[in-house]
Amino acid sequence: EVLIVVFSSFWVGLLEPIPEEKTSRVSYDGYMLLRTNLTSELLENLEKEYDVEIWKSRSGFDTTSDLLVAPFHANDVINQLNSSGARIDVAISDLGKAIEEEHSFIEGDLEKLTVRKSHGMSWERYHRIKDIYGYMNYLAGYKSDICEVINIGKSSEGRKILVLKVSSKKGARTKPGIWIDAGIHAREWISPASVTYAMRELVENYEDHPELIQNFDWYFLPVVNPDGYEFTFSENRLWRKTRSKKSSIRCRGADPNRNFGYEWGGLGTSNEPCSEIYRGEKAFSEPETAAMAKFIEDISSTLKVYLTFHSYGQYILIPWGYRNNKRPEDYNEMKELADLMADAIKKEGGSKFTVGNSADLLYPAAGGSDDWAKSIGIPYSFTIELRDTGKHGFILPAKYIKTSGREVFSALKAVSAHLTA
Ligand code: ARG
Ligand code: ZN
């Protein structure tokens, strides 16, 4: 009898449908996201003493920090915060539950109605690389007069790194170029989602705004860090870095946004491989940043604008980011355009984006892609931190994708309008 039971449950197991891979294997059940105004030193103590991950730390502009706290330390951490008189708000009471709910689109099963057979993107949930790349290839086929997919290199784990070039005269390098990338940091899912939405609007609704493609060449790199991105689906929702592996080193990956070759190794970076802000062994040690830099360098004389999308916080950040109190000579020109983008976003989706210098507004962090892009002579370079301001943080529910995507597109229109005026 025992044998039969074992045998039959084995077969039942085989018949069960393979669940769709959306939940990561590292469990965040019971983890809390707390927002507090605790001072920075006390915060560092908490980080050392307990299993606390700082999602966002207080900075020049912002007086609160967001802390992810493991369930077995929740009481201790809350007691410590209370005894030091700090304010505490619970932003997320159970991160595991929030992650489970992240994909669901509240307006029901619209996805089935809108997805075409030819590609899998819906912008009603977050999609894996195969859907994103499938969509880029779909555009290159269906709109082959203006779209082309360019394979710019390979990630550490061998994934392709794909750029979609949108241009009314394919192959020619005559128009001023606008570069847009997303997904440098793996867990910032709203960034590839919003950028692919904007890409769709630009290409598929061409007739609504033909001047955008008539006046500029557009380059989209929606997932700079495909290994990290896939890892956030399969293993750990909160992975940030690349997934490169050095045999002599225990921890994998470097922070791609500390790995670019301008002022590499400076403030706000770490030489400790296990750190979330590990800069890598040297500038461009990561194949992803190296491939991107090589491609951008080749077209850099045509590029007018460099935009890199991250989350969260709702900021438009202007170089330099590698140290405080240091602004490029043409800072005010950049600020003028950043303000126009912020106005456009506000009008479109209602969210308020704060504009300012990267280091002064947030914190100094060297080796960022924005500083590097500015350093090679691209006139306008910005890091845009998308929604939200901390209610959901990285775990922004999918119902916000379309609004955020429209906000991004409205910012692109503002850029185009300003530069053609
Ligand atoms: N949140 C981004 C990061 O930490 C901000 C980067 C801003 N740019 C800079 N060069 N510091 O990577
Ligand atoms: Zn980021």
- Largest beta-sheet characterization: 8 strands, mixed
Compute the CA-based radius of gyration: 22 Å
Ligand set: arginine, zinc ion
Q: Tell me the overall shape.
A: globular
SS class? alpha/beta
Helix-strand pattern = HEHEEHEHHHEEEHHEHHEEHEHHEH
Helix segment tally: 14
As a percent range, the share of helical residues equals 25-40%
Q: What is the residue-averaged pLDDT?
A: 91
The counted number of beta strands is 12
Strand order of the largest sheet: 5-6-8-7-9-12-10-11
Report strand %: 15-25%
Distance between the first and last residues' Cα: 82 Å
Which residues form runs of ≥5 with pLDDT under 50?
A: 4-14
Family: Belongs to the peptidase M14 family.
Protein name: Peptidase M14 domain-containing protein
Pfam families: Peptidase_M14 (PF00246), Propep_M14 (PF02244)
Signal peptide: 1-17
Structure, described:
Helices cover 36% and strands 17% of the residues. The protein is α/β, with parallel strands linked by helices. Helix 7 packs across helix 14 and helix 11 packs across helix 14. Mean pLDDT is 91; it is low at 4-14. The N and C termini lie far apart (82 Å). The strands form 2 sheets. The chain has an 8-stranded mixed β-sheet with strand order 5-6-8-7-9-12-10-11, with helices on both faces. The structure holds arginine and zinc ion. Zinc ion binds next to loops.
